[in-house]
Amino acid sequence: MRSFMDIDRSLKELVEYLESQGYIKTEKVKNAFLDVPRDIFIKDVFPGKAYMDTPLPIGNGQTISAPHMVAIMAEELRPCSGHRVLEIGGGSGYHAAIVGRMVGPEGHVISLERFEVLVKKARNALASIGIENVTMIHGDGSEGYPEHGPYDRIYYTCAAPYVPKEVFDQLKVGGILLSVEGEPYSTQRLIRYFKVGDSQIEKEMLTLCVFVPLIGKYGHRS
Fold this sequence. Notes:
The chain is of the alpha/beta class. Helix content is 25%, strand content 29%. It contains six helices and nine strands. Strands 5-4-3-6-7-8-9 form a seven-stranded mixed β-sheet, covered by helices on one side. The protein has a two-stranded antiparallel sheet with strand order 1-2. The N and C termini lie far apart (40 Å).
């Protein structure tokens, strides 16, 4: 029997599957998924494969994450309406679009991507579905983006060796940071940090995962 990862379905069927498996737990995440068509972000790469629950290459050695991992991270990040969010590793723009829908028109997502060609594609995809509260920026995500901080939420969509102080400093007190930490192309760990004071961070280990490496000043070597 073929698994859900082997069969393309509709957006509605994908969301029903993610909900049945416990990846989508809240109405807020469910509604965001239903409001963001994944096919728009990969139509030039894998037409007809958008609603498989699997990561797919998008060029330049990068991937669009599997929908279940996006759902896990959206639930664990807990973005609220009006939040300012920093995404490190913009890729296709799909993950940022989900979070953008969750923070609503009064919130904003700043997404950093090191490949300019992917930034341009993501901007076009976001514009085509009317998402105006996500700003794609070409740059080194490993340093964060203090110009628009501090942020209520920060999350990585690529594997870093660690989270530097420079990025923690961009997180508001009371904020949440989701990181992916580990060696490139090996089993990594999704970690949630809570900033409970100016220099006090609490750490919670979540689940195992595999992401492409973060390259940059505070990332892995290319």
